[in-house]
Amino acid sequence: MFSAQGYDALRHGLASVRRSDRGVLRLAGADRATWLQGLITNDVLSLPPGHRVYSAYLTPQGRMITDLWVVATDDALLLDVPAPLAASLAARLDGLIFAEDAQVTDVSAEMTCVHLLGPVAGVAAPSTPALAGGGVLVPDHQYGVPGLVAYGALDAVLAENGLNGELGPALEVDLDTLDVLRIEAGVPRFLVDMTEETIPLEAGIEDRAISFSKGCYVGQEVIVRVTTRGGGRVARRLVGLRLDLPGGAMTAVPAAKTPIHSGDRAIGFITSVTWSPTLTAHIALGYVHRDFVDPGTAVQVAMAEGRVPAVVATLPFVSPAL
Question: Comparing 90 with 50, which gets the higher pLDDT?
Fold first, then answer.
């Protein structure tokens, strides 16, 4: 449940969020990086220990199997994936290992993922890679506020890097409150704003998730064809929307898959929606036809009580405070 106090800690203080929505796979073996390089969209060969990179794993048709963060430690790569997919992804990846020296294990139960977010986290961020006993602490700015992500036992990772006393107490914040920050930052979430039908270019994640200079990967042909021959034009794109809903934070909001219209034409659907305390407005993410993606475009959201006016907005909704 959303917490105003938690939101304030995320924006102005220090909050900890246990990422129970994330699973962790461990990829070990001498060939781990070269093997993974041929599967996913971003470059992991140049990833040094103590750092992470965002990527996607695609079908040969260029549609998403999942998104993921790849985290380098001294002796392995950690794959930070949506928790509901962790077990199936581990089995799927294991089935693709043949003669390579690579082993994939689902370590979600023992390798917890915790976010530390807020200005205090930015001040305390280590200036060098922070590795501790198989755990790792990496900087993170995806939600528009300074942050750290710890993989492993949080207290042990912080203590190893001398940050326990420096950080001070962090308010524990739930995933619902973090999700408001995510939507304000315009960050799509797999299984919510992206699915197995999504091409990364539709979700606008190509700048973060795709290397256009690395070697081959599964689905590359489709991505290259759309970007080079098609000028990056896809049938639909994820956009931000500001909704003109009456009332404030307690007003009922449209559900996922609620249609978006332009006049009599259905042009898309909502994927995520929330009340933004910073903007004091309802905001949403959703897909619209490529002819309606320009900021300022007026559309309507078809709710049960009638159509609600909305305007396509520039993402992120809230400017980063980094």
Answer: 90
Fold of 4-182: Gyrase A; domain 2 (3.30.1360)
Judging by DSSP bridges, how do beta strands 15-18 and 171-172 pair with one another?
parallel
Q: Which of 198, 192, 43, 73 is closest to 138 using CA atoms? A: 73
249: phi > 0 → left, psi -120 to 50 → alpha, else beta; which? Answer: alpha
**What's the length of the chain?**
322
Model confidence over 158-180: pLDDT tens digits? 777 666 666 778 899 999 999 99
Could you please state the CATH topology (level 3) that the domain comprising 237-322 is classified under.
Answer: Elongation Factor Tu (Ef-tu); domain 3 (2.40.30)
Residue 83 has φ and ψ, to the nearest 5°, of: -55, -40
Please give the single-letter amino acid code of residue 213.
Answer: S
pLDDT digit string, tens, across residues 227-244? 987 777 899 999 999 999
**CA-only gyration radius of the chain, Å:** 20
